[in-house]
Write a structure and sequence with these properties.
By secondary structure, the chain is α/β, with parallel strands linked by helices. It is built from nine helices and twelve strands.
């Protein structure tokens, strides 16, 4: 059994959609048991997501937590202060990303969030109109859909030449800054905690998508969540825990197993 005590300190980094949140209804109800456990033991729960700042702040209120969080696939880290959040930018500004996006959209059939109405985003995501509006308030990156998947490879190659990259999330592709990823952001947050507390932390990372792989690789313990279609993404990380259940139920099961609750 793993003992939760003063000599063992953990940071838990978690993806949201399809991991802590149910892929269809965005509920974290099936993870409530271990959410309560880690809150009881004061283990920081670090959200790492493709979602926006406003979306995460709203979710943190529902979870009743206020820890650092990582948005838009590692593009920005937000550290809570007494009255606001301090931002550490790891990606290029949204307006610069959009200029690049418009360059690609002239030759490739892609459609970004900024070109969609709140209603369109709601239909694609299953979010309410108000939540879809929050999803469109980007700071760094642009989610998009593409008509011809076969063009993604060449588009990704072009993006890399321009200092950008394309990653695949649970529902969309994302145009991001080259070099930014969830792993780099994880390391920033870990260093922040170790510097202010003057001690080492063991990191646990949970995710289900291709854009989670770098984060899982950078953690001390990787947890691969079974996807909504009962599959796993390809992952060859040593000692990775693969969940038996999907989404938040798998999230709960894996942490319960890890902490031997």
């Amino acid at each position: 059994m793993i003992q939760i005590n003063k000599t063992t300190d953990y940071l838990i980094f978690t993806d949201l959609d399809g991991t802590l949140l149910d892929h269809k209804n965005y509920s974290f109800e099936e993870a409530q048991e271990m959410l309560t456990f880690i809150k009881k033991h004061n283990i920081p729960l670090i959200i790492v997501t493709s979602k926006t700042k406003d979306e995460v702040i709203k979710l943190q209120k529902k979870l009743d937590i206020k820890y650092p969080f990582i948005i838009e696939n590692g593009a920005g880290v937000f550290i809570p202060t007494k009255e606001r959040y301090e931002m550490i930018a790891l990606g290029k500004k949204y307006e610069d990303t959009l200029k690049q996006f418009h360059k690609y959209s002239k030759t490739t059939p892609i459609k970004g969030f900024h070109e969609m109405s709140d209603d369109e985003v709601a239909k694609l995501t299953g979010l309410s109109i108000s939540k879809a509006s929050l999803a469109k308030k980007r700071t760094f990156s642009e989610p998009f859909i593409i008509d011809d998947i076969s063009k993604i490879k060449s588009l990704k190659e072009q993006a890399k030449k321009d200092g950008y990259d394309i990653v695949k999330g649970g529902r969309f592709y994302h145009l991001i800054t080259q070099g930014q990823d969830k792993a780099n952001a994880l390391k920033v947050v870990k260093k922040y905690y170790e510097d202010i507390d003057n001690k080492s932390y063991r990191t646990i990372a949970l995710g289900d998508g291709e854009n989670d792989l770098t984060m899982l690789n950078a953690s001390d313990q990787a947890v691969l969540i079974k996807r909504f279609d009962n599959t796993y993404i390809d992952c060859d990380i040593k000692d990775v825990i693969r969940t038996d259940f999907i989404g938040p139920k798998g999230w709960n099961e894996s942490l319960k197993r890890y902490f031997s609750c």
